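[agent] plan:
  1. take the single chain provided in the ticket
  2. run structure prediction with default settings
  3. attach structure tokens to the ticket
  4. add a short note for the reviewer (M.T.)
[agent] executing step 1
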Amino acid sequence: MTIKVALQPAQTKPRRSMLHEPGVRFAVSNAVFVGCLFGCRGAGLRPAFTEAIVYVAVAACALALPPAYAAGIGGSAWALFTGFVENEYGVLTFAQADLVRFALLVATGVAVAMLTNRPPAYRSHE
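[agent] step 2 finished; step 3 output follows
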């Protein structure tokens, strides 16, 4: 009687970084926006240039996120920009220009998310 034993390497799951979690990336994106606004204010940039940088930051932070999170990122970027660049002391206003900016920031985030978000890979339970 012969017994054959095949040795297989241990199967380990690759560790995922916390930055793969959408909620963590949402929180980090808010820190990125605050950092952008501080940097722009410190550099003495005009609000128009600061707004352009915020759009780029929204696009970068929305990469590969679900669209709902990306919409929230656009909304929080709008609140920070409107409250601390357009106005002072965090005061939010809802003038026509503010609402257009809100729509554009949310649309930027959602568009980038929809273009870069992939559905999760099918995982069999073997």
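[agent] step 4 note for reviewer: The CA atoms of residues 40 and 50 lie 6 Å apart.
[agent] ticket updated
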